[in-house]
Design goal:
alpha/beta, 268 residues, Protocatechuate 4,5-dioxygenase, Chain B, 37% helix
């Protein structure tokens, strides 16, 4: 069953060892992710599914990672200390695989086995699951499933989320689903009205639960906004389709010139 759903930014500079004193610029975002972690800890999920835009991206297929174990690292960004290890949920992963392999028409799913997680998965999991020296508030004994978006249109992403939900709802496990993504880029460096307009419209439509407006965003408008979070968000909305949920915007700001949104979807 779906017990938790959220949108989380993933810029590596949000990691304390990378951002250091610059994290003060993202104070609202960091505080909001702390609140989100507290909500997740109360639920104690058995499985976390993370939809990322930064793994292997195929033009015509979504990407399901079948590795038995996963490792998160941020060495590419100069952080040599952050090391995370997660286990997979092979049972649900293979059920998802079977569902999409037998669908007609097929929704285009590609399987990979890659132990190294991309930062679109690593950064959200760092904030949601890691125990720090001063923090005894954390979850344990959970597994993860990383899923990559595709180059397909927004409607296909929504339909993929709907199909994913069908398998999730058959599970008796408590499952959290995370849409990993940042909104418009270069907001502080330019006065580009398109970028500001995209973030504002997306947040407005999320609050209104106006899914049609989000799915029907003009691709050219989205491209000009230089975002990387829309497709994961639409997959999440597909998962939430026909469920009783309440959107809660925990924070929005644009530190480092990037629109960062932290949102929680309370499911009842």
């Amino acid at each position: 069953m779906i017990s938790f759903a959220a949108i989380i930014p993933h810029h590596p500079i949000l990691i304390p060892s990378i951002g250091q004193e610059k994290l003060e610029m993202a104070k609202k975002t960091v505080e909001a992710m702390g609140k989100l972690k507290n909500k997740l800890v109360k639920i104690k999920p058995d499985l976390i599914i993370v939809i990322s835009p930064h793994g292997l991206i195929f033009a015509d297929a979504f990407c399901l990672n079948l590795a038995e174990k996963y490792f998160g690292s941020l060495e590419l960004f100069g952080d040599l200390t952050t090391k995370m290890e997660f286990k997979s949920d092979s049972k649900l992963t293979h059920r998802v695989r079977e569902r999409f392999e037998t669908a007609n028409p097929p929704p285009f799913l590609t399987m990979i086995s890659e132990q190294n997680l991309d930062y679109g998965v690593t950064v959200p999991l760092y904030y949601l699951t890691q125990k720090t020296p001063s923090d005894n508030n954390y979850i344990s004994n959970f597994s993860i499933i990383p899923i990559g978006v595709s180059g397909l249109d927004y409607q296909k992403h929504f339909e993929f989320g709907q199909g994913l939900k069908e398998e999730i709802m058959q599970s008796d496990k408590k499952i959290a689903i995370i849409a990993s993504g940042d909104l418009s880029h270069a907001l502080n460096q330019t006065e580009n009205p398109v970028e500001n307009k995209f973030d504002k419209q997306l947040i407005k439509f999320l609050k209104q639960k106006n899914i049609d407006k989000i799915i029907n965003f003009d691709p050219n408008f989205v491209q000009e906004a230089k975002e990387c979070g829309l497709r994961p968000i639409i997959v999440l909305l597909g998962v939430l389709d026909n469920l009783n949920y309440k959107p809660e915007i925990l924070s929005y700001e644009a530190p480092f010139g990037i629109g960062t949104l932290v949102a929680h979807f309370k499911i009842s």
